[in-house]
Amino acid sequence: MAAVSVRDVSVAFEAVRVFDGLSLDIEQGEFVVLLGPSGCGKSTLLNAIAGLLDVASGQIFIGGRNVTWEEPKDRGIAMVFQSYALYPRMNVRENMSFGLKMAKTSRPEIEKRVHQAAGLLQITHLLDRRPDQLSGGQRQRVAIGRALVRDAAVFLFDEPLSNLDAKLRNELRVEIKRLHARLGKATMIYVTHDQIEAMTLADRIVVMKEQKIQQIGSPAEIYGRPSNLFVAEFIGSPQMNFIKGKLEANGAGLEFVSGKRRLPLSRYQFTDRPSSGQEIVLGVRPEHLETGEGGTWPGFQIDIVEPMGADTVIWCSDEKDTIQVRTSGNRKITPGERLALGIDPTQVSLFAAESGDRL
Fold first, then answer.
1. Which residues contact 129 (CB under 8 A, 6 or more apart)?
2. Peptide bond into 238 cis (omega under 30)
3. Which of 155, 221, 237, 297 could lock 217 by a disulfide, CB 3.0 to 4.6 Å apart?
4. What is the pLDDT of residues 78-127, one digit of tens each?
5. Who contacts 179 (Cβ-Cβ below 8 Å, separation ≥6)?
């Protein structure tokens, strides 16, 4: 049975309908990330699951129980917000235990839960400090600890790392992943617009755009077989390259044609068999392009070289397109150098130019 099940849920703000019949099942123990640009509806969906927003229609189940109209405190969830929202005059111990005291939990049980959560988050030595004596990362750990002491079955995270600098985001991202592993069967739903957070944390990613789910899958599925042009463009850094062209029939089947460039597609796995002459967009990741004299597509010139340590990103162009190539950081590359690009047809993605759907 799904730990969280959203069934045909619609959410409206007065006359504006945000969702219309959205459904999503999340299994017990899963780490699911809701990913998308600002305004796509991911936080609205999280708030509906938490009970912070009323639904216009549909139902929400947590642990097999219909919680559609239950108060947030009765849903068995714990939530971590973007803002730490710590009480400034209370120390860490008091901040973490405040909700338990309001629920009239016994003092020994409060102490036990606070020390367990503090140990998991490595903040035991901070229990007697006030928030103004903590770094941003430590404050967010306290906010997560305040949720952990509730001993909930479902944890909801609403962009908890967005207020931190890059180094702290990386550190806390690892801590959250460790935390999920230590908690075992706890279900986590995490909202972010950061694709790196999504790819590194999630068991499954739910990609959203304009209040609709675009694709649900593992990080490898989302990255390797994006369902449409939006997902392909949104996931990946450097971004996937896109080249417009059309399909033409040859003796062995179909091939991609863009000006003088051609790519046989006999080894490409089509979702639906398209027709010859159809306008399409070919997408290829920068790391799936090879460079060398015997490349499939000659005639490119290196414009910009971006050293990135272990990797180097090359921006190259011809009279028609600009393409990014990811190569080894040890390779010596000179702007102005000419190169040919080799493409493996099993590593590309093809999309219908009109609908944007994967072919």
1. 91, 92
2. yes
3. 221
4. 999 888 888 999 999 999 999 889 888 999 999 999 998 898 888 999 99
5. 120, 121, 144, 148
